[in-house]
Amino acid sequence: MDKKNSGRHKRSTDHSEGRLRIGGILKGLADLVEKLDDLAEAGEVSKTGEILGGAHEVKGIYGYSIKVGLGDEKPRVEPFGNIRKDTKTGRTVVQEVREPVVDVFEEEDHVLVTAEMPGISTEDVQLEVQDDLLTISAERGDKKYRKEVQLPESFAREKMRVSSNNGVVEIKCTKSH
Hints:
4-stranded antiparallel beta sheet; 177 residues; globular; Immunoglobulin-like
């Protein structure tokens, strides 16, 4: 191995089983997150990637967003995509449903939730709310998304308005005064 490539993680595909061997990549993310935490003083850092598979046309998307400078909170790492660790087997799997990048902004008269969902329009979005837990799901063609979001307070579904523009879904939750 030459010096340029030493220390880099390689991905490989087991074509006989159609499974991705990405455990090393995900394991290395923890170290990367620590390094980014040291570098970031305020703002947001994010990284995305795509993993393509062999004969079974597997398409995995994984990314994370590191949010810092949010008051006195510690930096938060929020993963997104469709690559998860199966809790029963411990293996890394590529799921059909993607988890979008989501941000929550608390304003004086409303809470704004934004979700990055390329290929989705307003009509494709379904919302479920239970107390302060909002579940966003959407589907169009082969694009499927789902995310549970903790809101800063409870909202009735009737107080939520959905809009979408260029793959960014916005949910405006009006506060009761």
